[in-house]
Write a structure and sequence with these properties.
Elements lengths: L12 H8 L3 H4 L1 H13 L3 H8 L1 H21 L3 H29 L2 H4 L2 H27 L8 H15 L13 H20 L9 H23 L7 H5 L1 H31 L4 H6 L2 H14 L9 H18 L8 H28 L6 H39 L7 H7 L4 H34 L14
Helix pairs in contact: 3-6, 3-10, 3-18, 4-5, 5-6, 5-9, 8-15, 10-11, 10-18, 13-17, 13-18, 13-20, 15-17, 16-17, 16-20, 18-20
Pfam families: MFS_1 (PF07690)
Protein name: Multidrug resistance protein B
Membrane topology: Multi-pass membrane protein
Amino acid sequence: MQSANLPLPNAVLRFIQGALSMSDDQAGWVFTSYLAASAITLPIAQWLAGRHGLKVVYQAAIAIFVLGLLLTTLATTPLAFVGARIVQGAASGVLAPLSMGIALETLAPARRGKFGAVLTAIVLLGIASGPSIGGWVGEYYGWRSIFYISLPLSAFIFLVVNRLLQEKKAEKSPPFDFFGFGTFTLGMIGLQMLLDRGERLDWFASPEIWLEALACALGLYLFVVHVLTAKVHFVSKGLLKDRNFVLSTLIFFALGFVLLSTMALTSPMLDELLGFPPIMTGSLTIPRGVGLVGAFILMGRVREGLDHRAFVAAGVALVIYANWRMLGYSPLMDWRSVAVAGALQGAGLGVLMPSLGKVAFSTLDPKLRPEGTGFFNLTRVYGSTLGVAVVQLFFFNSTQAMHLALASHLTAYRAAAHSVTASMSLPALAGLNEMITGQAALIAIIDQFKILMWAMLLVSPLVIFLRKPVPTN
């Protein structure tokens, strides 16, 4: 439920924009606001549970999540809708790690070892199925109804937890590095706001952008100094000393950069530019989900003794190849091109994620694994939120540049263009401008797929420097 609600509005984004008078650059906030809020609350979930009680915190998170769902259905302005998504995301950042903690405590010890892979597959299934669910429901019942889906499920979870889960609270308040967490969060949120708001406010011509840039620089500077000088901090130095963990985390960040950015680009392209109905737009995310979950399940059957570095390399190569195929998208293509590229990318991600996790933790001190797991997953979340922000930013710049380039050919000095445009009415000229804008936007989207391909190409050499995994007990 938590992961499906992230991309749920993807297939009906056009209707949300129309109903709320939301501009194209604000549409990106639908995803980045949810992700950024989730990234803020995710690291403190365990601390909150230890201090106030697991059951209380979990039920509070469900209640806040439901509040966010209701606020999205009541929103009448872009700001109200984004605010509701922030409420949803903040609650989801707590629900994700605590759900895993509750499940691990409930399961028998013999079954806990494989549950991490099962949970990851479920999360991926949610991300992959969210747009198709949203597209189907939005097509027949309107876009607001997509947020009602989770209400009965949330109520059921709340009642089950209230009746069956025993309260658990730490005997003493667990320590937490609030200074390190605060400075890191300040830096990342400053960067997020800088990317999201820069284009709208004409970058450094605006005092707000200067303030956000200073917050980003100050936060990250203080965090780095804190990590290098303090004995106890938000990120253990032991994690940074393990080569496999560091390199795998960088690749995982790039994977997050590609994972949701592709969905944020593909659905608007199909819906707004190519005219696919929402139900079809949502359905075309299914091949990607099938490839992802299918490959992930197959990787679970791989023999433990094999060197997973080869699978990391294969997964990276497959994702790069899938993004290269996306560079061939055109207004004349049918659904098959999108389905094939999506299935290949999904298969690459499904191979890469589990193998990368095994390589990352195979050489890490077992004492550092709980902290490493949290940080490892946090980098994927930040990769996703920054990835969506970056591709949205370059998309608008590329669209404007391509519109200018295409429109420059419609001048009085070109006889064919002049003979047509000279006799056209204003509505016809507006239609011509809309057609040029659509062509420019499609070219710009393809350019963003190129950025995503380069993101994976840049981290691909890191695979060479991974050490052969040596499992630790």
